[in-house]
Amino acid sequence: MDVKVSTLADRPDLLEPLFDMADTWPEFVTQDLVGNALYGRIPTEFPRYVLVAQDERGEVVAHAFSVPFALDAEGRGELPARGWDQVLTWAFSDLRRGVACDTVSAIAVTVAPQAQGTGLSGRMLTAMHDNARALGHRQVVAPVRPNAKHLEPRTPMREYAHRVRPDGLPHDPWMRVHARAGATVESVAPASMAVAASLEQWRRWTGLPFDTEGEVEVPGALVPVRCSLEHGQAVYVEPNVWMRRVF
Fold first, then answer.
1. What residue spans of 5-150 are helical by DSSP H?
2. Contacting residues for 195 by C-beta, under 8 A, at least 6 apart
3. Distance from C-alpha of 5 to C-alpha of 203, rounded to nearest angstrom
4. What is the pLDDT at residue 179?
5. Which residue among 39, 62, 82, 193 sits deepest, i.e. has the most Cβ atoms within 10 Å of its Cβ?
């Protein structure tokens, strides 16, 4: 697929088409409270770190969100166990306080349904790395959501994250894309995002009955969702895998 990739800073007119682009994220993944509060602000507050791909007709077919933050700031230094949620919080805190940032974190690469399977996700990831380096940053990190982990939700993430093929590349396809872009596995973020909601909400999001106490396997979930009938709620705590590329 022939695409043109621009930053949103260069093409602010693409803000509305960006948000109008269809995606295939499971509904429950979009209910993380930190993400709900901050993710939608990235295009307007970090437009230089948002990449948009257009096809030959000018239609938006992919976008890549990233954010700068200060990893070497006091009290930090290591990639956080709370992964996606924590790095979003750090980025917006640093922006508010005017802190100089040394690192860029990938937040999401999203490809429109009609453009999936064309290698566009890898091209967007590489463009994100190139953009971060052009903006003067020394490394890119990513709280990676392995896209085949949902097929084996009961496998511990620490085991899955280090599984490799005979050629030495990660077993997981999305982790493999990051590895081919130059990133290596750093650590597991065991609580990268969390979704806690009533059983009725979970039923609406998933179409499942949520009438069994304990762990419930949900399509698209990387680990089981823990259901409490007594309390009328279910909690999903998603682990991700931190990967890092140093320039």
1. 15-20, 33-38, 42-45, 83-97, 120-134
2. 28, 29, 31, 32, 33, 235, 236, 238
3. 38
4. 98
5. 62
What's the pLDDT tens digit per position in 204-234? Answer: 999 999 999 999 999 999 999 999 999 999 9
∠ CA(155), CA(161), CA(165), 5° rounding? 100
Q: Give the pairing of strands 225-228 and 214-216.
A: antiparallel
How far, in Å, CA of 54 to CA of 190, rounded? 35
Helix (H) or strand (E) holding 179: helix 173-180
Are the C-beta atoms of 241 and 188 separated by less than 8 Å?
yes
User: What's the confidence (pLDDT) of residue 1?
Assistant: 86
Rounded CA separation 61/41 (Å): 20
> To the nearest 5 percent, what fractions of the chain are helix, strand and coil?
35, 30, 35
CA dihedral (141, 108, 180, 144) positive or negative: positive
At 52-105, the pLDDT tens digits run 999 999 999 999 999 999 999 999 999 999 999 999 999 999 999 999 999 999
